[in-house]
Structure formats: structure tokens, C-alpha cells
Amino acid sequence: MLIGTFMESIGYIGRIISHNDTEALGPFIMQQILILMAPALFAASIYVVLGRIIVALRAERLSLVRVSKLTKIFVCGDLFSFMIQSSGGGLMAMRNSMASLGQKIVLVGLAAQILWFGGFMVVSAVFHVRMQKYKVPVEQENWTRLMYVLYASSGLILVRSVIRMVEFGQGHDGSLISNEVYLYIFDSVLMAIVVLLFNVFHPPTYLRQMTRYSEGVGLIERA
């Protein structure tokens, strides 16, 4: 999360510099790639937190995907989309005939990210529903609140990815890319809310509480 926030911040610094010097290639590349890719790192943090919630609750058997593989599967998928988007963003920043190809590559990367996020939300929801069938030896408020933070953060990143996908699909003459305000509303603001959620509802704090209450107890099936 911290690295993603740093990348996003540097990306917007590059955008400010690029706004004042439209011919400078370096700042343009900086903002094009970093702003595009930073949410993939936010997503990776969300995947890791879900795995730790399941382990902290000693509820591995309720997970749709084996916990030892859950984080690896989704982080690897996220890394895959990250690499596709970064390569596409690099080509787009060249401002030549390769820019069109870069745009298509970015679309593929965003589509992969959306697909992966959809799968993650299904896994999260199935785990959540299964947990409702058991008496858990932790304060329910702790783990459910953190789950809702993951849902909210995932939803915001998903909306952002869909909007960016539409933006790149419209091309350079599209309404989204032609109006800078849409970038700030559907990217900057949404990602700022994700960062705020993770700071207000700090996962390590909740995870420590879950571990303290559930350690050595396990789940008790609801009668």
C-alpha cells in the first residue's frame, strides 16, 4: 500500500510538471506509467489482508481457495496485469506509431485486473457467507468490519479500472481522456479513499485483535 501511494504521488508530480511543460517526455512517461500502475499494488495489499484474516480467524477450512495458495494466486495475477499495463503504458508514452499498440495492451492489462478482482470478490464473499454459519471466538465486529473495508476498497479499484478501460477504449479523442476532471474524479479521488480506508481501519490493528481472541480456540460450529 505504501509503495502504491508513493508511486501515485510521484505520478501526479510528473503530471504537474508535464502540464507546465507539454514537450517534456520524462514527466509524461512518469505520470502515464505510475498513475496507471499504482492501483495494482493497492490490489495486492487487499489480497494479502484477506489471507491474513482467514489465518487469524483459524478458518482456513472455510476458504474457497487454499490459504497457502490464495495470496500467491491473486498476487501473481495482479503482477501479470501490472506488467501488461506497464509495458502498454511505456509504449503509449513514446508518442509515436507504437502508442496505438500500447493503448490496446493497456486495455488487456485492465481487463485482466478486472477479471482477477472479480474472482477475488467471489472468494471473499464465499468465505464471509461460510463464516456466518459458525460461532467465531472473536468479536464479530472486528473481522466483519475489516471485510467490509476490503469490499469497499475492491469496489473502488474495480470502478476505477472499468472507467480507465472505457477511457482507453475511446481513444485519444474520447470524452474521458479529453476532460482531465474525469481522471481526478474516477482515479485520484477513488484511490485516495482506498488509502484513507486502510489508514482509518488499519488492518494490522484488527488482525492482532483477531489473533489474540482466536489463538488456540478454532471455530465452533453453530448449533
Polypeptide structure, described:
- The protein has 223 residues and is mainly α.
- It contains eight helices and two strands; from the N terminus they run H-H-H-H-E-H-H-H-H-E.
- It has helices at residues 2-20, 25-56, 67-92, 98-131, 140-170, 175-178, 180-200, 203-214; strands at 134-135, 220-221.
- It has a two-stranded antiparallel sheet with strand order 1-2.
- Helix 2 (25-56) runs parallel beside helix 8.
- The radius of gyration is 19 Å and the shape is elongated.
- The N and C termini lie far apart (40 Å).
- The model is unreliable at 216-223 (pLDDT under 50).
Describe, in short, the structure shown:
The chain is an all-alpha fold and 223 residues long. The protein contains eight helices and two strands.
Beta strands, count: 2
**Integer-rounded radius of gyration:** 19 Å
Number of helices: 8
Shape: elongated
Task: Record the strand order, biggest sheet.
Answer: 1-2
User: Secondary-structure element sequence?
Assistant: HHHHEHHHHE
